[in-house]
Amino acid sequence: MHDEEINVVGFLSEIWFFWTVCTEWEGDADDKTHKYNDAKTPMSITMPNLTVAVLAPNGYARDLGKKGTSTDITFYNLKKGHDTVTFLEPTRYPDRLAPLFYVVSMAHEAIVVVSEITPMLAEWILMLDCAGVKNGTIVLKNYIQPNQIAPLTKGTVLEAYKIMEEDFIGLSADLLARAANQPDIEPKEGAVGSVPIDHHFNVRGIGTVILGCVADGWIKKHDKMRVEPLGKTAQIRSVQKHDDDFAWAYAGDRVGCALKDIDAEELDRGFVLTTDPKVTHTTTVTGDARLVKYWPSEIKEQMVVSVGHWMQFLSARITKVDNGSDWRAPKLTLEMETPLVYKPGDTAVIHYLDGGKLRIVGTIRLP
Predict the structure, then answer these.
(1) What are the CA-CA distances from residue 10 to residues 32, 192, 351 (Å)?
(2) 36-53 residue pLDDT tens
(3) What is the distance, to the nearest Å, from the Cα of residue 213 to the centroid of all Cα atoms in its chain?
(4) pTM for this model (two decimals)
(5) Half-sphere exposure of 298 (CA within 13 A, CB side)
(6) pLDDT tens column, 206-262
(7) Could you tell me the sign of the dihedral formed by the alpha carbons of 172, 178, 181, 186, in that order?
(8) Dihedral of the CA atoms 273, 278, 279, 281 (nearest 10)?
(9) Rounded to whole angstroms, how far apart are CA atoms 288 and 365?
(10) Residue among 352, 226, 367 nearest 292 (CA)
(11) Domains of the chain
């Protein structure tokens, strides 16, 4: 584990200890001037949240929100009343491709800052399109004009993005307004949901704590969750969203959950807490793929790729290729050493880390 990751875990552990044992904090995790109140029970009001991937020079989001957890991904938080926006930056990108996939896979929408036309911009566009992030804003700088980026965005999800000049105040207001319009529906009887884990640690006196974004459905305090791919069961002791205790959380919410019946050492990034019986795991998948339009040639057997789904970025070997009548839409069989956790019908993104300037291959429909 990197030194900065150890420091973050230690700091978050201390914060969670005070949240849970002493008081309920108001503000963000990195603010050391917190006030506190005596709230002891989960809040009954809703708190709509919007999660936004920020594809820009690292640190751009500091003018949009307050910095939080920072490892290979950096989180920034914006809160007004009960409306919240979580900004995600891929801190260790472009040296590593996985952080770019992680922030895009978690996002409701994206902010793409264009100050020049580069291969990196093309990679952002391909990743957003493969992940299906349909809503977003393109911020143009350095006199870049819309017609200069139009050939790159044509036929992708970015074709529908709003285009604007840099305006942090206006952009923040727009995002908070969209956060307020996010659905926040109370769970019905029998509601199920899943949370991919992006951070986990042990807290003295509390036990295991995980951080993640609810991928779909609902999670509730006291839910007994399957931990995939372990197959173990853990119970949620508490659910927090932006420093407040809640009885439940909905798809898109950024949450911290205290768990019992499982040790932090048993967990890893990419593991999934779920009550959904459809969620499964496997080391072999066969599915219909769709290659990006720039991919130059047929996929070959024995090619080693990386499969991205939720908070997983797994090495896989292509063991079978059926090109049919269109080599850009082959049926592929992938074999992995680490189990892939997914819900049948989901889409995963295929990456090729040795691809030079073209590292995104396309998508595969999971069976």
Answers:
(1) 15, 32, 33
(2) 233 344 544 556 688 999
(3) 7
(4) 0.85
(5) 13
(6) 889 999 999 999 999 999 999 999 999 999 999 998 778 889 998 888 899 999 999
(7) negative
(8) 140
(9) 5
(10) 352
(11) 41-180 (3.40.50.300), 193-274 (2.40.30.10), 280-365 (2.40.30.10)
